[in-house]
Amino acid sequence: MLVNILLLCAGLAVLVFSADKFVYGASAFARNLGLPPMLIGLTIVAMGSSAPEMFVAATASMDGMNDTAIGNVLGSNIANITLILGLTALLGAISVSSKTLKREIPLMLAATVLAGYLIHDGMLAHYEGIILLAAFLSVMGWFIYQAMTNKEADIMGEEMDAEIPKDVPTTRAIMWIIVGIVLLPLSAGWMVDGAVGIAKIYGLSDLVIGLTIIAVGTSLPELAACIAGVLKKEDDLAIGNIVGSNLFNILAVLAIPGLISPGAVDASAIDRDFYMVLATSIALAVLVLSSGAKQQLTRWHGILLLLTFIAYQYVVFTAH
Description:
Layout: H1 2-32, H2 37-49, H3 51-62, H4 66-89, E1 94-95, H5 99-119, E2 123-124, H6 126-149, H7 155-163, H8 170-202, H9 206-218, H10 220-231, H11 235-260, E3 263-264, H12 267-289, E4 296-297, H13 299-319
Helix pairs in contact: 1-2, 1-8, 2-6, 2-7, 2-11, 3-4, 3-8, 3-11, 4-9, 4-10, 4-11, 4-12, 4-13, 5-6, 5-11, 5-12, 6-11, 8-9, 10-11
């Protein structure tokens, strides 16, 4: 038991560290190449925040643990909205004014519906993984097009510009990219091994492992980014981190088990967990896009989101 706990904690710590350094190096390298801050933020930074989920999903899929990989995607998206945004909103009201963000949220909802349609038959086939990957590449292409052609000022672009590292030597940026690429899969393996060992002792299923222990762990980079964003008064960037991460999780990360190890999907993931992802995504859209003139997430919203997270965890653990 102690070995499994140490593996989980070490894997989680190195995973968060390596994801942060990978994003730092990749975004600094992209800035040195002269790419627009909005483009860097919507692609490299957003993908980097989903790097823990990507490597955990790949590790679990290669070990034949598809339910852990799928549970990680669904659980991370639920945790991002209910736990991460809930905790962040407790620090103070989060205002939204970015036009880019308001275009991203409907995309996140559309991607969630697409994923639900593909897995509703209880299977995630190889061709469905290809469909998800194609949708992901299409979204990336649209982001790149928007960032390169839309010259209209956007508050999120200004916030991204402030966060992307400046004056980082290219050699140092490349060094951190390499460090991230080496440590991410290594730490993901430790985390999965530790979580699986703990779960087996308590008789938890592969799906529950992904939905709970691993999902919360891989969402920690989003928590750090959101809290930092709100403390710096970069509210749009804080919510943008969640929306971007959830969008990439449901397309790019969910595609991984379909591509590596296609097969059956646990019925609970379809009948319970997917609908929780859909419900929380719709709730976020309603709160952000229909919250009146101020368009804010308040502390009361934060409390409601946290209570939702606690209730969901209770249901998952008592139903296993």
